[in-house]
Amino acid sequence: MDSRLIESYLDALASSQDTAGQGAALEEILTSITQGPDSLLTLVQGLESALTGDDASRRAKGVKLLATVIPRLDPPHAPPAALAFLVNFFCERLSDTPCVPWLLEGLHNVTRAPGFDSTAHANRIVGALLGDLHIQSYQQATRHTAFKLLQALLTDAYLATVRQSPSTAADLVPQFIQAMDSEKDPRNLMICFDLFPRVVEALADTTDHTEDLFEVVFCYFPITFKPPPGDALGITADDLKSALRRCITATPAFGPFAVDPLIDKLASSSGTAKLDALQTLGEAARVFALADFQPHLAELFGLVREEVSQSSDGARQLEGLRTLAALFAKLAEGRDPRTLLSSSDVATDRPTPYEALTPLIDDFIVQVGDAQWTKAVDSSRLLKGVTQSCLYNAILVCRLILPVLLTTHSQNLADSTAGPTISSTLTGTDEEDSDRARVEILRNLLDGTTTALRNIQNEAPTPVDEASLRAFWQPYTEDIYHLLASFAHRFATRGPADATLACGALLVAAVLPHAFDTTEIQGAFLVMHEVYLVAGPVPRPELLACLHRLAKVHPEPVRDVTLDLYRPRMEPVQHASQLSPVLDLGLELLRKLGTVDQLARPYLEQLLVPSLHALPATYPLPTGGDVYARAVLETVQTLIGALILPGRDAAWAGELLLPALLCAAVRPTYQMTTEVSTRSTLDVPVSVFGNQDTSEALAGCIADMTRALPADQQTPILAAIYRLYVDGDVGLFASLSIGDSETAPKDVTTVAFDPLGLRNATVPEALRPHQRRSLIFFAAVYASLYPEVTLPEHQPPLDLLATLLDRALHDTMGHYGDSPAICVASWLNKGPSAALDQFLHESLPAVTGQCENRDLPHPVRRAALTVYLWATKAVVQLARRDAHQTALVDRLVAWLADTEDTELASAVAAGFGLLIRDHPFALTRAAHARVKLLYRQKFFSQCLPGLIAGYRRQHTSSDTPSTDASPLTPADPRPHYLLALSHMLPHVPKPVLMADLPALMPLLLSSLTVPEPELRIGTTNTLYVVALDAPQLVAQHLGTVVRSLLALTHARDPHNPMGVRTAALKCLAVLPQTLDYEVIHPYKDETLRALRGPLDDKKRLVRKEAVVCRNRWFTAAG
Question: Is 925 exposed, middle or buried (0-12, 13-18, 19+ CB in 10 A)?
């Protein structure tokens, strides 16, 4: 190689600031190798004078050049032969101390090269590193490189090869000890602690240096490392401690050396040392031999017991229990639990676990006998740790403890019935404490036993059969059940903690494998269910969790008992007058239990759906029935969500459940009592499903089921519902067995079902609006179909979508609602592009003309606007950004300036929310619509300039002062632009909103002065988000923000309902938390004075928020 290239690089290295010269020289050398005549070997030859000279600095620079070049070369220019030469080259020069850092870097780069053969060169490099190099004499970076090399080379395969050579193994172990001895850097220690178990596992039994190996790592125990502030290494004390534990317990051979010093650490006064010792002893018990612990068991159990019973550190208590479990598992190692299952006398064999347990058992018996319940509970926690260790110990403890505990309880019951005794003179508090202690003790024992049984069930084959376990539990289960059931009843009204404790203990007993029979399981459920109904709101979530856990473990018994329990309680929704608190809780329970695989279908089939189908016996419907109906539908929807999960019974949902729900929704509009059919008008809905909220809830259930079905199952559903709504064919419901024939009304009249008016059928005028409203259920099905599912053919030919469009445009009474427009929009979104273009060219002009024709009445224009908005939503979600979408959106923005029909302009403003938010069941990804990922961002970006420009244009044409935050008058069109923004902002992705906030802030502040409660709430909620994510922007307008929000807290303003006042107070309360004190200080006194009014507000929720807000402003300080 040209020596001038090398000299150029070495000269550039002489100047540490000449990085550009170094890079240029290096690139020339690389080019000479990769594109010229040179190679790695010619580079080494060219460096001969630099590498063999007396100048140590120049030698180091030469090695650096060679080490730097290696990783920049591709495999053809770094062949295996050259890498082998470099391995020998670097290893032979490790005695050159000034060059060692770059020699190690060179070796590291060689080992990472694609052509490096670890099998051929590992022994050479490892021997040089451990034999020729004193690693601890170098700086941290050099040591780190050396340890990284060892970590890469000391693989399991290499160590297995070393093991075959006794002489090599005998040399490697002491060399490795010397290499890591006295290492203090945490980065290097992590590598050493990773290497150590490998070396020990492979070579510990081949060397006489076992004690030296142990000492070289135990000297670091306990770890006291604390990462420095701003540490970027990511190494924590827990990382080092965990790695060190693996080293100390790397081999059973360390047992004789480790147990004694670990016990010394456990007996020390340092809490950290105690915790580390407990964790390490727990690991050691799984590895070391029992003989290593045998001489220290009494002392060790005493120390562990002290930590569990007396320590205030929860972590130490937990680790103490784990250590205890590990030690007793070691004591019971190799013992068959079946010997205890069949033996009634555990003292005859006197096994080692029994001997170790004797002091603890004796203390526990004394504590129970003397009513030292606090100590007894502490002892039960220790016994729980023992029972968790293995099934042998669990059975041993249960045989020793359960008779004592159950007999004591039986004696107390006998004493209480026989008359006054010493125990009956206990105060109420003492009796409650003793009851609570008994429950907690029993729960601890059974919980630990459950863990042991669960672990044993995971083994294959299971060493204990079901019959043996049932025979073991049989003498105890009845007493356990009655004890816990009685306590649960007594604890139900004491308090949340007691109720949860009792039901939790009963749950643990009920899920104990092979213990309770079906009757006892159902009894446990009924007890917990009763407590759930009578307990306060605080423990109910935990009680629900208990009942749900029992249902997951024993679904069949829970299914049977809940069906028997709730079948008589589920009133038909058409007859229910109100939702009772008990049934409300029951429905909440069914929602929770219905998520269990085996329970959703029977609950729907036997409880919920039948309650939806009864025909009304009287008219009008009982007051409050819609509340009950919505609660039932909420439960139905939750269970449908569980039913249609992958692998569940979605096919049944499509074949039977979906028609049943459709029947419940539609049948009351064509089949009713004769008295109702003769009425000319109906003042209230003919069924609870005629109510908007209830019908939307039922439509959501229907949509959920439809979209979960595959396309081939959706096709017959669509065909059946098509015949229902087009032809009035109710054959879809023929196979359903619905209602109770004995209680159903006898005077039932059936009329034609013709919601679209296609057949000119005779339908009572009083029922026609209700049939039209039922179109929402057709829309729920149609909007949930896959795009490939198309409408069936009809004879004579019928363009159903054109009919729906016509009905939507002429729906001046609003009977159909949005349903026809939803169907049209779903077809536009999912259909072919040509159909969409045809609609935009042929049908949309008529819709637009009807909207813009000021001579038409408002209801006619409003009907057309509904179609226009849904058609625009279908286009916007495709994010085509073509001329059609631009024209659609721009026209909406222009309509906001309508000052003649302000009601229509307000509807347009609300329509912007419709366009950007998800509908409950239509035009969503879940409903298989075509929805582009970023359509919201694109739509908002398209609208925002027009909204801002329109707002400012209207402001300029008004006579108000020239400020965006100027007051707004009722005739001012600017509120329409603000309403449009208010409806959109909650649904705009936060990054997009934050980017446009500077332009939006003046408009947001203006919105706070508009006398529209909905706008005020929406704007205040947006400001709340801005205060959290962009406080600096709020700080720029803080005076206006504070005063505007304070004005919204005044109850005397009729435009400030409770929702406005609470939202304003929440927003005010967050300002002291997000803004610096010097920013809010000028407004502190003003705010505190103004908050006196909300503190006396008539609404409790407002007063609550006012207290929080005033406290934050009052305590704010610099």
Answer: exposed
For residue 309, the number of C-alpha atoms closer than 13 Å in the C-beta half-sphere is: 18
One-letter amino acid identity for 599?
L
Q: Which 3 state secondary structure label does DSSP give 733?
A: helix
pLDDT in tens, 33-80: 888 888 888 888 888 888 888 889 889 989 998 899 999 888 888 899
The predicted model gives 667-678 an average pLDDT of 74
pLDDT over 70 at 620, yes or no: no
pLDDT greater than 90 at residue 415:
no
**Looking at the structure, do residues 859 and 985 belong to the same domain, yes or no?**
yes
Same domain for 145 and 210, yes or no, is yes
pLDDT at 420 (0 to 100): 43
Decide: 480 and 403 in contact? Cβ < 8 Å. no
Same domain, 285 and 354: no
Q: Is residue 826 part of a domain?
A: no
Q: Is 672 exposed, middle or buried (0-12, 13-18, 19+ CB in 10 A)?
A: buried
Q: How many domains does the chain have?
A: 7
Give the number of C-alpha atoms closer than 13 A to the C-alpha of residue 1093, restricted to the C-beta side.
15
**pTM of the complete model:** 0.76
Of 233, 250, 267, which residue sits at a domain end?
250
865/984 same-domain check: yes
Q: With beta carbons less than 8 A apart as the criterion, state whether 206 and 170 touch.
A: yes
Residue 452 lies in a domain: yes
Half-sphere exposure of 143 (CA within 13 A, CB side): 22
Q: Are residues 931 and 1021 in the same domain?
A: no
Residues 127 and 239 in one domain: yes
pLDDT in tens, 422-460: 344 445 567 778 888 889 999 999 999 998 888 876 665
CB atoms within 10 A of CB 524: 28
Q: Which residues pair with 672 in a beta bridge?
A: 749
**DSSP letters for 1012-1069:** -HHHHHHHHHHHHHHHHH-HHHHHHTHHHHHHHHHHTT-TTSTT--HHHHHHHHHHHH
Of the residues 960, 992, 1024, the one at which a domain ends: 992
pLDDT of residue 964: 47
Are residues 978 and 845 both part of a single domain? yes
> What whole-number percentage of the chain has pLDDT above 70?
89
Range of the domain at 220: 123-250
940 and 955 share one domain: yes
Q: Could you tell me which of 944, 1006, 939, 936 has the C-alpha nearest to residue 975?
A: 1006
Residues in the chain: 1118
Whether 230 maps to a domain, the answer reads yes
pLDDT in tens, 188-200: 999 999 999 998 8
What are the backbone angles phi and psi of residue 45, rounded to the nearest 5°?
A: -65, -40
How far apart CA 1027 and CA 1024 sit, in angstroms, is 5
Q: What is the pLDDT of residue 775?
A: 94
Whether 34 and 77 have beta carbons less than 8 Å apart is answered as: yes
CB 243 within 8 A of CB 193: yes
Give the orientation angle of helix 391-418 with respect to helix 373-389, to 10 degrees: 150
Q: Any residues with CB less than 8 A from the CB of 428 and at least 6 apart, and which? A: none
The reply to whether 1046 falls in a domain is yes
Q: Which two tokens stand for residue 570?
A: 């589920």
Q: What's the CA gap between 825 and 888, in Å, rounded? A: 14
Q: Which residues are 673's β-sheet partners?
A: 748
Question: Please, which residues have CB within 8 angstroms of residue 519's CB and are 6 or more apart in sequence?
Answer: none
